[in-house]
Amino acid sequence: MVELVPESPAPSPRTLRMGTWRLHPAIVMVLGRLIRGLVVLWLLSIMTFALVQALPGSPVDVLAGPYSDAATRERMYQDLGLDRPLVLQYFAWLGEVVQGNFGTSLYTGLPVSELVIDRLGPTLQLAVAATAISLLWGVPLGALAALNRGGIVDRITRAGTFLGLATPVFVLGVVLVLAATTWAPSWPTLRYMPFSQDPVGNLKNIILPALALGLPLGSTVCRYMRTSMLDVYEHDYIRTALATGSTRFGATMRHGLRNASAPVVTIAGLQMAGLIGEAVLVENVFAIPGIGQLTVNSLQQQDYAVAQACLLLLGAIYVVMNFAVDLTYPLLDPKVGGKR
Questions:
Q1: In the chain, what are the domain boundaries?
Q2: Mean pLDDT of the chain
Q3: pLDDT of amino acid 255
């Protein structure tokens, strides 16, 4: 007699087998995102190195000066390794970067990593404050606009968000500076105080530039929140909640906000990473010594070691924020992490 043995169920395509072990789909997703992020960082390092190499001038022009002779310049090229092929120069630079050594600033003589770390704090503080402002007004106003679709609140909100999206960041920054100097002359607008020296003065320094960055970003968050909430209202669980006697506001608070927040978290996280790059405009308007201002100054001074470190750091922050958003998404939408 032939015994029929039932087939074992095929493994999920999202499950990674390692011998007799199976990795959870969420772990597979994290590993995939991590590998992709490392590849992006490597490609970014190539682009950063190539971009800086394509700029006019060289470190020898800064170190030797305009009146140096050819022999001196040739010797300096050899000492700095600039006479080697670009491929060898790139891998030598990359090997130092992996160890945390970005070189020495030609303009100040200080380690590049020290300069970047000193300037990174104000920029991160500005980006976090701007993102918090955008979420504080963008999320509730977007939900309120969706709750009153077609009403006066919805129309005013949409008009306001169009205005916010159309206003350049640096224009809004200049308007805020003029308003502060006119109506509050004692308000610090063009000087920066570190948090360690004066916490209250530091917060005063950050409020206006954070508003300049956060108000336009909040317009984007508000529009995404409104669209996402309107999509949530079409789902069966909202209809069921309304049919069982729940008010529209109650169904929104209990069921709608979390389900509508996933795309909003995505756009807010990516926009926060973008704020790091946009901060250069606001930092120049409000005289904040951040990473954006350091990048511009290093390019103007042909301090290419600092410029390379700044550009690579800005790209790395974007990759890390994208990775953090990918990790947050399964918490808001369990289906993404493989939970059923």
A1: 122-288
A2: 77
A3: 64
pLDDT of residue 340: 37
Residues of the chain under the 70 pLDDT cut: 1-26, 57, 61-68, 237, 242, 245-249, 251-258, 273, 277, 329-340
3 state DSSP class of 36: helix
Per CATH, the number for 122-288 is 1.10.3720.10
CA neighbor of 143 nearest in space, from 253, 43, 66, 241 = 253
Neighbours of 21 (CB within 10 A): 7
User: What is this structure's pTM?
Assistant: 0.73
Length of the chain equals: 340
Residue type, 40: V
CA distance linking residue 329 with residue 339, whole number of Å:
12
Contacting residues for 136 by C-beta, under 8 A, at least 6 apart: 218
Q: Alpha helix locations (H) across 287-303?
A: 291-300
Please list the helix, strand and coil fractions of the chain in percent, rounded to the nearest 5, in that order. 75, 0, 25
Amino acid 62: pLDDT = 66
Burial-class residue 126 by CB neighbours within 10 Å (0-12, 13-18, 19+).
buried
Cα–Cα dist 224/262, whole Å: 10
Q: What is the C-alpha to C-alpha distance for residues 305 and 52, in angstroms, rounded to an integer?
A: 9
Q: Supply the pLDDT for residue 14.
A: 47
Asked whether the beta carbons of 288 and 236 are under 8 A apart, the reply is no
Give the contacts of 198 (CB within 8 A, at least 6 positions apart): none
CA 6 to chain centre: 52
Distance CA 340, CA 335 (A): 6
